[in-house]
Amino acid sequence: MTCADVRKIVGTSCVNYVTGKEAHASPTCCAAVHDLQARTPTTAMRRLVCNCLKTEATRIKNIQDQLLAALPGQCAVSLSFRLSVHIDCASIP
Question: Which residues contact 32 (CB under 8 A, 6 or more apart)?
Fold first, then answer.
């Protein structure tokens, strides 16, 4: 998992949902979120993704933190941490 992978997930596949342009996450977005969950089995990987996500979020105009946080639920994915631009990545288990 790299920051480029995270960019693809949030910055491309899910950008319309997390910016409020779409009411629901698309199937493509949800497939990317499922892939993210499957590829982050360790604390180190989850923290890496978190840091990448925070960096990518600063590049997305009009990102809505509440929609980012709702993304796993929209896609029926259980993550061990909350998606948020404000999260302390070091606190992720």
Answer: 8, 9, 13, 14
pTM recorded for the entire structure: 0.86
Distance of CA 29 to the CA centre of its chain: 10
The whole-angstrom separation of Cα 57 and Cα 10 is 8
Q: Cα 92 to the chain's mean position, in Å?
A: 14
Q: How big is the CA angle at 80 (ends 74 and 86), to the nearest 5 degrees?
A: 80
**In 10 A of CB 12, how many CB atoms?**
13
CB neighbours (10 Å) of residue 77? 16
Hey, what are 6's tokens? 């995270």
10-residue stretch averages of pLDDT, the chain, 93 residues long: 80 90 95 89 92 86 92 92 89 91
